[in-house]
Write a structure and sequence with these properties.
The complex is a heterodimer of chains A (113) and B (113). With 113 residues, chain A is mainly β. Helix content of chain A is 0%, strand content 55%. Chain A contains no helices and eleven strands. Chain A has strands at 5-7, 10-13, 19-24, 31-38, 42-50, 53-56, 65-71, 74-79, 88-95, 103-104, 108-112. In chain A, strands 2, 4, 5, 6, 9, 10 and 11 form a seven-stranded mixed sheet that branches. In chain A, strand 5 and strand 6 (53-56) form a beta hairpin. The radius of gyration of chain A is 13 Å and the shape is globular. Chain B is an all-beta fold and 113 residues long. Chain B contains no helices and ten strands. In chain B, strand 3 (32-38) and strand 4 form a beta hairpin. Chain B is globular, with a radius of gyration of 14 Å. Classes of the chains: A mainly beta (113), B mainly beta (113).
């Protein structure tokens, strides 16, 4: 199995630009999670989906952040407009069910100048 | 200016010694626990898990102990190797309506050769 795939691995953009992060979960997994990791706040859950439906988005920082899961094999996390404080590593993870072991992707390192 | 980040607890051990990493969890109703290892520049990687109906589980060179009375979880690594140097996170299934994993802040394990 290829594991969770994320793209891009690195993104550098300027403040105000739109950023889209992509994730392909492990085939057959029904739950998908987006996390943000920073030195200041550690690993934070932003949102998670069960069977492509958003279940808990309480961790999404503000309206500039949005996430979609149009099908079982693809999800996006969008930031519009981006700000320097959004700089972080964003991880996608998937699991067979929400409370099962989560398998993480390699992450996207986002730098907003 | 100087950035202020999370102060990760650090455990420094000599190569070949045994390591014990501790974690206090918060929800007495949690029934599933996982240990993850995160190496620099990578996503968290599953190490071992345990359900609340057990108090001990062993893997290859690793053992997880669960004490539900005091809500304490520990990870023991036998014969620690330089490749074990990483940040270790515990996670608990928080149950409730959203039924998701909650991650701790992590412990940095530094293995001295």
């Amino acid at each position: 199995d290829a594991g969770v795939i994320q793209s891009p691995r690195h993104e550098v953009t300027e403040m105000g630009q739109e950023v889209t992060l992509r994730c392909k979960p492990i085939s057959g997994h029904n739950s998908l999670f987006w996390y943000r990791q920073t030195m200041m706040r550690g690993l934070e859950l932003l949102i998670y989906f069960n069977n492509n439906v958003p279940i808990d988005d309480s961790g999404m920082p503000e309206d500039r952040f949005s996430a979609k899961m149009p099908n079982a094999s693809f999800s996006t996390l969008k930031i519009q407009p981006s700000e320097p404080r959004d700089s972080a590593v964003y991880f996608c993870a998937s699991s067979p069910r929400a409370a099962d072991t989560q398998y993480f992707g390699p992450g996207t390192r986002l730098t907003v100048l | 200016g100087e950035s202020v980040g999370l102060h990760l607890p650090t455990l420094s051990v000599q190569e070949g010694d045994n390591s014990i990493i501790n974690c206090a969890y918060s929800n007495s109703a949690s029934d599933y626990f996982i240990w993850y290892k995160q190496e620099s520049g990578k996503g968290p990687q599953f190490i071992i898990d345990i359900r609340s109906n057990m108090d001990k589980r062993q893997g290859q060179r690793v053992t997880v102990l669960l004490n539900k009375t005091v809500k304490h979880l520990s990870l023991q690594i036998a014969a620690t190797q330089p490749g074990d140097s990483a940040v270790y996170f515990c996670a608990e299934n928080y149950g409730g309506a959203t039924n998701k994993l909650i991650f701790g802040t992590g412990t940095l394990l530094a293995v001295q050769p």
